[in-house]
Amino acid sequence: MITSGTVLKWRIDHLWPQADVDLADNEKWIPSVTDFDRFVKYNWVRKCRYISEIFDCDKYALLFHATAVLYIADLVWAGVVEAKDVRPWAVGEAWGTKFRNVETNHAVNIVFLQEGLINFNMYLYEPQNGEMWIPNNLSDMVYDVRI
Length: 147
Prior knowledge:
- This is Agglutinin C-terminal domain-containing protein.
- This protein is α+β, with helices and mostly antiparallel strands.
- The chain has a single domain, classed as Beta Polymerase, domain 2 (2-Layer Sandwich), CATH 3.30.460.
- It contains three helices and eight strands.
């Protein structure tokens, strides 16, 4: 499912009006849950070993985001999909001061997934352990999003 950056920004602003939202492209592809699960199996970031201040939460989130870009490029390069039929995925980085009611400066990934023919939901994804949840403005405080 293709959607506009404006729609994604509205969804984010609705939950976190104070957040700075940077969208690199005008249109994004919202993958299905099945496609996202395939990507998670392809993704090698969780295999990386944590190193305090060197390879920590922001690096995990950055590389997970970058690997989502590479995953789509690999599918195009392999001839699995045509470039005209896809867009960059609606996967990015979310920086905040509270996640799942734990107050801490932290970076995770923000993911939009298609559910049904015309609906999609926003999730936060912890690339260090694979946990994913639907965010809310009481338990998750995000101040910066890059997609």
